[in-house]
Structure formats: structure tokens, C-alpha cells
Amino acid sequence: MARVRISDVAAAAGVSVTTVSLVLNDAPSRISQETRERVRAAADAVGYAPSSLARGLRQQRTNTIGLISDQIATTPYAGRMLAGAQDVARRHGQLVFLVDTEGDADVERAAIRALAAQQVDATIYASMWHRVVRVPEGLPRDAVFLDCTPEAPGFRSVVPDDRAGGAAAARELVGAGHRRIAFVNTADTVDRPIAADLRFEGYLSVLAEAGVAADPALYAQGEVSARGGREAVSQLLDLPDEQRPTAIFCFNDRMAAGAYMAVRARGLRIPEDISIIGYDDQQLIAAEQDPPLTTVALPHYEMGRWAMEVALGIRAGETDATHQMECPVIRRDSVGPPPALVAKPSRRRTSHTERSHSATPER
Amino acid sequence: MARVRISDVAAAAGVSVTTVSLVLNDAPSRISQETRERVRAAADAVGYAPSSLARGLRQQRTNTIGLISDQIATTPYAGRMLAGAQDVARRHGQLVFLVDTEGDADVERAAIRALAAQQVDATIYASMWHRVVRVPEGLPRDAVFLDCTPEAPGFRSVVPDDRAGGAAAARELVGAGHRRIAFVNTADTVDRPIAADLRFEGYLSVLAEAGVAADPALYAQGEVSARGGREAVSQLLDLPDEQRPTAIFCFNDRMAAGAYMAVRARGLRIPEDISIIGYDDQQLIAAEQDPPLTTVALPHYEMGRWAMEVALGIRAGETDATHQMECPVIRRDSVGPPPALVAKPSRRRTSHTERSHSATPER
DNA sequence: CTGAAAGCGCTAACAA
DNA sequence: TTGTTAGCGCTTTCAG
Questions:
Q1: Which of A213, A276, B149, B212 is least surrounded, with the fewest CB atoms within 10 Å of its CB?
Q2: Contacts of A75 (CB under 8 A, 6+ apart)
Q3: CATH number, domain with residue A210
Q4: Does residue B137 sit in the same domain as residue B100?
């Protein structure tokens, strides 16, 4: 069966198409109440659904947003960004085109062209982790960058405030009384997450604030994984007692999970013997550790919302070029006061080699 | 500046719009090579980009697919489904509208209407976990269900073959020599994942095949989380030695992570003392356990691909109503042969209450 | 208070 | 081998 058009409604209601259009769009006009009702009834009766295509063509406005992302949900929590963006789009009657480029420049170019061809009203360019991105050629000037900062100036963007987040994490530890606070960073050098340096800076600033000198021995690096975290923390725990950290700030939750392993392998307890704080608040990791991991949350949902809101022209005022979003500390059970200095339990092993199943009691 | 239209190209090239259309669409026609080149050059010169809107309106075909999902990336790995779908769409020049309904029926209705108004060429209805869904009113008859089975018949759908997956997991354990194999299931009753029963059935069938009687004492339940898994497994480990399982099949990786905790708390080793197998292959959990968890993968990416392929009319032949997709076993290091029956190390505690920091050696 | 008609940008039938 | 023209379904001036 053929599509039912506005003219069918008009015929059914015994009016012109103009009238139907006016009525159904609630356009300001002097159409009688009686006619309005007749039109609406007719529309219902024939099952009329206006064509967005025709309307878009006519109005040159499609109520459609393009969202280009480099990697969809490679990082699991990043789906929250989509959800945030999706959410406000929906509430404003917008539909979103999602294009995943897999980081391929050709695909990206094609995507930009395709979205332009669709005459999307706005474009969002999202990265699945906070970094600096090259501005793809052809991207509309009013595109909004989500979870990344464009190399070129003049674009609007929203990113997590990783510096403040790093500071908040460190403050959490300092506030609990710690002085020997280690920082376990990612060792990534290529395509390095700028979050790495920002979080470290935040950490340093808080140490300075608190008047504690940063001890280079308390800085370790590893690959971003539980293994990497375990190895890095293991080294830290090899330090002589008086230098050993009483708290460790890990670049992210995956590394923190590795920290747990290393700590457990020594027979130390969290947080009694050592406090751990992570970053990212990955539900599947942080909340499920034993004890649950205190960490800093990345405001993915909120960033997604923000990006869509500026893309849609809500939030017109506060359009500073780049918006930093707060990363709140999520308090769980892995941070406590440092062990009393008097009792120096030296339960830890001296061996450098960890066995995998080291939870097994020593004998 | 106004949009450049096909007529602009025609004027620039000194030909008619028909010619331009024919050339740029590579339509079979007898246009001279010379003209073709002139047209293409002109198109480039004026920076022409055809309007998908106008074309869609004219052809009644939009090259656009609607993808409705209940919860976007609440379950992290589910993003892989989107990636799969996205991927084949892109390769076929299709753009996808993603709408997330958050499980709200009103939103769903609105989404269906909006997609119809956009005249999408096909619709995919995705659930973020395998279950039976009510068919939303107004959904096109040719919609494809992704990771869910519609209540009503007559629709095409793709789901993981959880029964075979459960069997594969059990077979992995039986093959390693185990006979006392526990099954730790989800205790969910509302909106119960049908995977729960299917995996259990697969497990039972393999036990039967192998001639081992299913021991009701080796069935445990818990909430789907590390905690739930830990509690359930903890009970299992309380069984008398001769009844205690030598291997445990957990409903999913999260529960398996809990199993690790419970096992460690007893001072037992994986896989030397007890083998564990999970389900889902959640990277952040399975691959990062110590030792890495052997598990069964959910073929999310492949299901996404499949759904999009049937939606696009590729795979016309094999359109059985519901397609089951294989769940392959991912071998890592948590499965080994059962401990030799002669040496019965009874290291485990007898207390029922586990302390959180039980990795600490007993003293 | 309501209707006629132009036109958004394109494709496809038909003409030349 | 190429051009003319109708029309996809809608909104929106402009007339009545």
C-alpha cells in the first residue's frame, strides 16, 4: 500500500493541504477550532504520518544530528557518552546518526561527507578516551568535540578535568593522613593519553600544597592493564620500609586491580596496610574489587549531554571554547588512614618474584 | 552561502541535469567519455555534494537503517553488537540511526514512529542481553531482532546459542577429566535471562553424555555479581571433601570473578586445586584475572553483522526465522585436570564466614 | 479564516 | 547521445 500523504488527509477532511499542514504543526493561524478537530480526526483516521524527508527538504532543517566516533564502545564505559547524547537528542525530537570510523581516516572522510549529504543540523565528534585529535578535513566549523580537544582552535569541546580529578584523588589520600603517596602511571608513549600528565600534575600540586616533597622513588610506570599495575606496584613495595608508600594512586582502575594483586601477594591488607585509589570508575572493576575500590569517576554521561546540548544550541551562552567537566571522587573502601608508625609489621616478602597464586599462605 | 545543486553543476559543465545525474550515479547510459569527464570536473570545481534528502524523497529509498536498542552499552561488551552492525552498514553505504529507548515503552513507540517518518529502509531491534521480548506495536514486519527472540512469530532474529555454549563449557571441563562439576547460576527470577536455563541445559546434556549423574548439591545460585558468585561458590566449597566440586562452571564472568575470590579465600589454587570456567568473555574481567579466565565468548560482533546483513537483504537465502550463533570457548589458564585423588590436601577452612581480606595468611 | 501554487533537490520516463 | 519535464511530500508565501 502506498504511503498516505498530506493530500489524503486534506481530502478526507474536506480542506486544503495548507490547512492540514497548519493544523498539524500548530502553526499560528486563524483556523477555526472546528476545522482543527476535523483535520486531526481525519489524520488519525487515515493513519497519516508526515514524511521527515519531504519536510527536511522543504525546510532545509532535518532534526537530525551526526555523531562520529573513533571507536564505539571499545572502552566499555564510553557507551555512557552515547547514552547522554542520545538522551538529550531524544528529548528534543532529534534523531542521531551514529557513525563509527574505527579510527580510519578514509572512513572518517566518507562519514563526514555522508552526514553532510544528509544535511544533519549539527555534528559531534567523539573520542572514546580523552586525547588531542587532528581536526578532520571537511568537518563543519560548528562541530562539537566530545572527550577530546581539537588541535586547531575555534571549536567547542568538552573534556574531563583530569587535572582537578588527579588533585581530588591525591587530596583524598592526603586528607586521610598519607604522606608517602605513590603515583602509578601509564607507560604509553605513542598516542599518549593527555590524562596521564594531567592527573600527575594534579597529584603534584596537591603534594606541594600539603608541603610534602615528591619522591621520585614513588613514581612508577607500567602498561595499562592489571598486569602492568601489578608489576609497577610490586616494585614500589620492594622499597625499604621507611620509603615504601602507604598509599598508591593508580592511573586507572585496571592498573589499580593489578595493585590489589601485588598488595595481596605480599600478604598486606587494603586499606589497613596500604590505601589504593584508582580512576575511571569502571563498574565492572572498581565496584567489584575486594574491598571495593575508591576511585575517581569520569563523567561520561554528563559530557555526552553537554556536547549534545551545545550542538543543539541550548547552552548558547556558556560556550567557552573548551569545557572542563568535574571528575568526582567515588568513595568506597580502599582508602583509610596510614598504618600507625609505631607498629611496623614487616610481613611482606623480600623475594622479588611473585608467584601467581601467591594468595596461598606461605609455609 | 547557498547549497550547490545539481543544476549548478549542469550549468558549469554546459550540459543538462539529467546528464549530470546519469554520470555521477554511474547509471548505464551512452554518455560520451568526454562529457563524463567534463561533468566530473565541473562537479569537483563547484564542490557539489548531492542531497540525500532529495534523492531519498524521489527514490523512496533512503539508504538509512534504524537501530532501536533498549539500553545502549549498559552491558559494556554489547557495544560490539553496534560495531558489527555499523560495520556492515558502512560498507554498504548505509547510515544508521541509533535510538536508545532506555526500555521505556513510550520512548519506543515514539522511536518507531520517528524512524518510519524518516523512511528508514530497514529496522533492527536490539536487546543488550539475550531474552524474549514483546514485539512493540508498529514495528515493521521485516524488522530484525538482535540478541533477543520476539514473542510473536514471523520475525527474523539472531541470538547466541547459549545451550551449545553451555555444553561447550561443560565439555571443556569433562574433557579435562572432571566429574564433579558444579554449576553456579543466576538467581534472577524477574525478567530472567533465558541464557540461564539454556546454559544449564547444555551443561546437563554433556554430563549425561559423559555418564555422570548430576548432583543437586553441585548446583548453586547467586546474584549476578562478584559478590553473588563468591557467596555461591563459598557454599560449594563447604561441601565435604568427597562431594566438593573439582570444577565450577559459572553463569558469567562476573560470577566467576567472585569464584576466584572464594577459592583464594580457602587458600586453594586455580587451576591446580579447582578449575573455573566463565561465560561472556568480558575482556576487562576474564583476561585480567589471575590466572586468566577460560570462558565462553558471546559473539556480539558477529550477531551485529548478521542482523545488519539480513536487514540489508544480503543473506536472503538463509533466513530461517531465528538464527543461533556459536559461542566459542576461549581457552586461558583457569582450567586444568582435577587434582590427583590420592593426595587430598585439606587446607581449606571450615568456618562459613569469609573475611574480606582473607588472602592474608592464617596464623 | 482558508486555498492555490511555487519550490526544496533530485531521478526517471519520455522526447529529441 | 543528451535534454525536458513531472513529481517525490511537504511548507510557506501570497491571494482571496
A1: A213
A2: A128, A129
A3: 3.40.50.2300
A4: yes
Minimum distance, in Å, between the CA of residue B89 and any CA atom of chain A: 10
Picking from A275, A268, A273, the residue whose alpha carbon sits closest to that of residue A294 is A275
Could you list the mean pLDDT of each consecutive 10-residue stretch along chain A, which spans 363 residues?
84 92 87 90 93 94 96 75 94 96 93 96 94 94 95 94 98 97 94 91 97 96 95 97 96 96 94 97 91 96 96 79 95 95 44 36 31
Q: Does residue B274 belong to any structural domain of this protein? A: yes
- Would residue B355 count as lying in a domain? no
pLDDT tens column, B231-254? 999 999 999 999 999 999 999 999
What DSSP designation does B36 have? H
Specify the 3-state DSSP secondary structure of B301. helix
C-beta separation of B332 from B287 below 8 A: yes
Q: Report the Cα B161 to chain-centroid distance in Å.
A: 11
Closest CA of chain A from B210, distance in Å: 31
In this prediction the pTM is 0.90
Give A102's contacts in chain B (Cβ within 8 Å): 83, 87
Burial of A219 (0-12, 13-18, 19+ CB in 10 A): middle
Domain that holds residue B109: 64-160
Closest chain A CA to residue B87: A100
Residue B99 backbone class (left: φ over 0; alpha: ψ -120 to 50; beta: rest)? beta
